[in-house]
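Quick review question:
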């Protein structure tokens, strides 16, 4: 246990060995996935899960999402931030390719976010799952709306609301002790919801305003066509 985790003031954090091991595991999983994909393509092309184009566009979207997640417009004191539309790039994968690939991309992004931020402090495996794995993987739920009218807007909204739900559940279970003393006690059950949706909806509103602009809508439609070709 001490080789991979260290404990300090009730928190668990990954050691350098643990971080390196986690990264190696992620790389190994990516390689194994690629190998299995190639085997599936050779055996039966119609059974393949990801095409080369899907992999390229999904990787580009996740890379943009990860990069923009560092550009924080609002940085909350106990974790969480409104970024430069980083959630949009992750939800685009589901919008392009549906829920199966969307949720897979969301899970991959969740691992990246965990390594980026979550590995710094861990209260428990369940807390890590709520705040990182489940929350960010939920961005892939946009895929369930990819065939609907205004599917990008509907999928994006559903995805970010689902992300906020998991963060709020984690807040109820693990972070209530950080509630400000001046927050009304009678409204304590609303604190995790107010805290988490404050930054998620702030980013979401700005992103939606951008998406409804005619030039952006046209550009998104063209990119989707390119991703699907």
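Suggested answer, residue by residue:
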């Amino acid at each position: 246990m001490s080789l991979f985790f260290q404990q300090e003031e009730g928190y668990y954090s990954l050691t350098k060995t643990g971080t390196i091991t986690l990264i190696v595991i992620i790389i190994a999983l990516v390689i194994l996935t690629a190998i299995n994909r190639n085997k599936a393509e050779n055996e039966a092309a119609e059974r393949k899960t990801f095409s080369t184009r899907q992999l390229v566009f999904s990787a580009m979207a996740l890379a943009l999402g990860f990069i923009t997640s560092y550009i924080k417009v609002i940085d909350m004191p106990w974790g969480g931030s409104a970024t430069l539309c980083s959630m949009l790039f992750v939800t685009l994968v589901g919008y392009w390719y549906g829920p199966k690939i969307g949720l897979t991309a969301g899970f991959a992004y969740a691992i990246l976010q965990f390594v980026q931020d979550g590995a710094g402090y861990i209260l428990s495996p369940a807390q890590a799952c709520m705040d990182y794995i489940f929350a960010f993987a939920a961005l892939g739920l946009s895929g369930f709306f990819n065939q609907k009218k205004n599917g990008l807007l509907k999928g994006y909204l559903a995805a970010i609301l689902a992300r906020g739900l998991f963060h709020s559940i984690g807040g109820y279970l693990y972070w209530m002790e950080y509630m400000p003393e001046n927050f009304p006690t009678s409204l304590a059950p609303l604190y995790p919801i107010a805290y988490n949706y404050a930054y998620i909806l702030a980013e979401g509103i700005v992103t939606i305003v951008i998406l409804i602009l005619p030039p952006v809508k046209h550009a998104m439609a063209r990119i989707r066509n390119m991703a699907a070709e």
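Why it works: The chain is about 65% helix and 5% strand. The helical segments are 16-43, 52-68, 86-97, 99-116, 125-137, 151-175, 191-211, 214-228.
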